[in-house]
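Standup notes, structure subgroup. Blocker cleared on the coproporphyrinogen III input:
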Amino acid sequence: MSRNDRFLRACRLEPVDATPVWFMRQAGRYLPGYRRLREKYDVLTICKTPELCAEATILPVEQLGVDAAIIFADIMLPVEAMGISFRIEESLGPVIQNPVSSMADVESLRIVEPQRDLRFLLDGIRLVKERLNGKVPLIGFAGAPFTLASYIIEGRPSRDFVKTKSLMYKDSETWHELMEKLAHMVSVYLRAQIEAGVEAVQLFDSWVGCLSPQDYEEYALPYSKQIFRDLSSTNVPTIHFGTQTTTLLELMKEAGGDVIGVDWRIPIDEAWKRVGDGVGIQGNLDPAALLGSFELTKTKAEDVLRRVSGRAGHIFNLGHGVLPNTPVENVSRLVNLVHEYKLRG
Ligand code: CP3
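Run returned:
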């Protein structure tokens, strides 16, 4: 049992002594210790070496005092195990050597066996757990089928997702086959992380906001829903995250997740109204609000806290990852501000 269990209590909608806070990309380039690691190793080497993975994962816990650690990995790692080679391009993201465009490509994707193919990650999880020694809970994660499919089809980060949508509309049989394979892989992958010791999991559907609600319902929702259904017997809390999802929130709740992640494009109280009772909310400060003076960060963070006013199930986070140029001092002061904010009642 973790000593600091605020984060897990909030996931279960239980009252907390202070609002839990952690950040997506909390182990990133804004952090001096991480930059030092990166002088010697590339991102994928860090991911694939349990010792380095553990070091990167634990850095922000020790430096910032966040209430949860997230395993240092990348959403593309299990996709690589399916037979898709990729590299990470600085300031861009994953670039795929062999994008998928046909049924034959989808049929050639391999079935992932995490114990065999992603041993490094499971060993990394075990090492982190040992080192954290219960200090804070460890979050595991995976990309959601839609977001993974968008990388696999586009071959690189995209703005308009034209290739992805073309395949979806023109060859829906191939689309659904791909999504089914990805959903199965993600379920198996997250279950393996849970067996290795993660205490919560987050499904990143980072780019799903490019879909209309109707298309989300038809082309993405069934697959994310399958994953949450597969995980329900584990009793491990689940977080369902996306960006630009203002019009999708009700449907994302229907797909599943004990906590719904929201970006900054909707006030947090309004987002919570949309998803209704019975789920928690994580987010929603604009990462850019940490780029200037702390006064601005403070004003915007207090607005978020005021809007939820201590309602059980709130996890403070940014609406997306910490930006590389963020002053680390703003991040650590933000952690303190969230912890010291007086909760009602
Ligand atoms: O601290 C953490 O949040 C854990 C580590 C983490 C990484 N990737 C390490 C990483 C997590 C949770 C991810 C998930 C991930 N990877 C997502 C979903 C989250 C999101 O941001 O929406 C996505 C879309 C990816 C794909 C990816 N990998 C991108 C877009 C990038 C950034 C490219 C850049 O240079 O800005 C990467 C590389 C990457 N993965 C970095 C980190 C810390 C930064 C690159 C670096 O260190 O040079």
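Discussed briefly. Residues 24-29, 38, 43, 70, 72, 74-75, 88, 90-94, 141, 204, 206, 321 surround coproporphyrinogen III (CB under 6 Å).
Next: hand off to the docking folks.
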